[in-house]
Amino acid sequence: MSTTNHLPITLLFNDLKAHFVHEPHWWPIHGLDVAFETTIGMVLVQQTRWEVVEAAVIRLRNAGILSFEDLANADAGIVATLCKPCAFYTRKGQALVALAQQICAYQGGMAAILAQPRMLARNTLLSLPQIGRESADTILLYAGHHPLFIVDAYARRFLSRTSILQTSMNVLRAPYDEVQALFEAQYPLHDAATAREVHAMMVEVCIHHCTANRPRCMQPGYHRTFVDVRKCAAHCVSCQHCPAMSVCAHHDKFKD
């Protein structure tokens, strides 16, 4: 991978934050239980756009399902209906109820799970239904305040197209844990706030500019409409190019 024009990651993320502005409207979305909303969000978002997930979370809240305890005692069919049109909503409704029941059965619940050291907490989360590595790490970062790097599809895309990660590894296909370990070795994340900002900025640049198809390198950012009108309201209104161009190893390939 090319290292031309490589910038320290701190300078890069300062550029990204200046471009997108701090985005505080992640989790919790509409309530105070960040662990609950993050967990159900990570189950529902599988093969589903976030706008659809956000609307489902609101419907669940409006139906009085505000906690793991509420969800554990809910009818799976009703939960599934509230989750529609998320992909596989019937299966996810059943899975969410089963997941909540297991969390409630754990002594101390989710708070006790997240209070464990990082790897112990992660292994406990991975033992739960519908929770994979990305879901577990998202819960650990946003709800458990464990500083770590989330290797989601956005991160893989961003790293594969830029020169910030010094490696010959194919980050699009490499095992999750290998990509995470390499990133954290090169860019240690000492606190959860920084780790969340790194994740947020990678997501933002991939949503607005570094899209999967026809990246908007030299164009205003793509605008998405979320249920929460605050999200992305001020993003890419008048910009003319991607703020990560300085480290983009494939800009010429994708340039319009």
- Count of β-strands: 0
Number of helices: 13
- Could you tell me the radius of gyration in angstroms? 19 Å
- Ranges where pLDDT stays below 50 over 5 or more residues in a row are 1-7
Separation of the first and last Cα atoms: 22 Å
Instruction: Tell me the series of helices and strands, N- to C-terminal.
Output: HHHHHHHHHHHHH
- Label the overall shape: globular
Q: Beta-strand percentage?
A: under 5%
Return the structural class. Answer: mainly alpha
Keywords:
single chain; 256 residues; mainly alpha; 52% helix; disordered N terminus
Describe the structure.
The chain is mainly alpha-helical and 256 residues long. The chain is 52% helix and 0% strand. The protein contains 13 helices and no strands. The longest helix has 17 residues, at 89-105. It starts with 8 loop residues before the first helix and ends with a helix. Residues 1-7 have low confidence and may be disordered.
Summarize the structure.
With 256 residues, the chain is mostly helical.
